[in-house]
Amino acid sequence: MYSELCELLGIRYPIIQGGMAWVATAELAAAVSEAGGLGLIAAGNAPASYVAEQIAKARALTDKPFGVNVMLLSPFADEVMALLYREKVAVVTTGAGNPGKYIAGLKAAGTKVIPVIPSVALAKKMERDGADAVVAEGTEAGGHIGELTVMALVPQVVDAVSIPVIAAGGIADSRGVCAALALGAAGVQIGTRFLCSAECTAHDNYKQAIIAAKDRDAVVTGRSTGHPVRGVKNKLTREFERLEAAGASLEEIEALGSGALRAAVVDGDSEMGALMAGQSAGMINDIKPCSQIIEELVAGLGDVTSRVGKLCG
Ligand code: TUI
Fold it and tell me: Any residues with Cβ below 6 Å from ligand 1, and which?
């Protein structure tokens, strides 16, 4: 499994770990990078000082390239980007917004810039602004999501831009990786599967909720706020649904979500915590080391491609 992305990023496999706020710490990022993928530290809603600590920790854990994901709705996005101009990490990915104004500064630092995009229009804009690749994230993903599925979004983005396209959303095994490559992707970004890894420092209750989840359990809340979020169904998502149905104010709905991700990841609150996860939650049944997750993703491709080859050949 080798693509232009491996060349661009200096990695063995074109497998990127999702930039999950609170979940994607230096430990997880280093484990994925050590295993030949690209690990990411998530800046989430944290200040630059936290990101600086995490970068130092990851550098102590691995010599391999890793990246930082910047969530652009964060009040600290500007100061985190200012830090990244100095830190010269290999890769910066962005989510939940348009990173256009930061691209030149990151590129001047020698950093590869890979925005996560939910539409063809934003992909084209990012290419014009100098992005090195894009992650086309489907609505199957966990956390804050767009509307299009991977199946529809990825080929349309591939047709619209010349830079490499990385598929994300709902991918957790070799079948998903192979399908993404068939759609024209140069690689994949995987979140939920890496959350259920041995090296992920998220609370075990969060991991167990994903393992227990069935196909329809990763639900979307917050559509009425303009920031839809997918996560495992629990007391919190039911409370969201109740408030949204009752026509509660934006402030009331957002107050419910505030601090809920930290509660899930750090405190293990599986009732009122935001158990953000993608639709792949239903096919994740165990916790294993990142190296094993990556080895199995790659090793399984032979069987998938030979099956497809027989059907098509
Ligand atoms: O960003 C994500 N996933 C996230 S961010 C997050 S924290 C959060 N929590 C509550 C509400 C909002 C955020 C949890 N999960 N994935 C990448 C992603 N980016 N999905 C969708 C987008 C996106 C949306 C609009 C990217 C760009 C965009 O552009 C709008 C514009 O400004 O042009």
Answer: 21, 71, 73, 95-98, 116-118, 122, 137, 143-146, 227, 229, 276
Q: Which domain holds residue 85?
A: 7-201+285-298+304-308
- β-bridge partners, 116: 135
Q: Which residues of 221-230 are buried (b: 16+ CB within 10 A; e: fewer)?
A: bbeeeebbbb
Residue 158's contacts (CB-CB under 8 Å, 6 or more residues apart) are 165, 183, 184, 185
Residue 313 lies in a domain: no
Phi, psi of 266 (to 5 degrees): -90, -45
For residues 295 and 1, the answer to whether their CB atoms sit within 8 Å is no
Cα-to-centroid distance, 205 and ligand 1 (Å):
25
Residue 290 lies in a domain: yes
- Report the predicted TM-score, pTM, of the whole model to 2 decimal places: 0.98
51 and 15 in one domain? Answer: yes
What is the tens place of the pLDDT at every residue in 31-86?
999 999 999 999 999 999 999 999 999 999 999 999 999 999 999 999 999 999 99
Residue nearest atom 30 of ligand 1, based on CA coordinates: 97
Domain-embedded: residue 126: yes
Residue nearest to atom 8 of ligand 1 (CA): 144
Q: What does the pLDDT read at residue 313?
A: 84
Which residue's alpha carbon is nearest to atom 16 within ligand 1?
95
Determine the length of the chain.
Answer: 313
Do residues 66 and 30 touch, judged by C-beta distance below 8 A? Answer: yes
155 and 258 belong to one structural domain: no
How far, in Å, from the CA of 169 to the mean position of ligand 1?
13
Q: How far is the CA of 97 from the centre of ligand 1 (A)?
A: 6
Q: Which residue has its alpha carbon closest to ligand 1 atom 17? A: 95
DSSP assignment of 136-200: EE-TTSSEE--SS-HHHHHHHHHHH-SS-EEEESS--SHHHHHHHHHTT-SEEEE-HHHHTBSS-
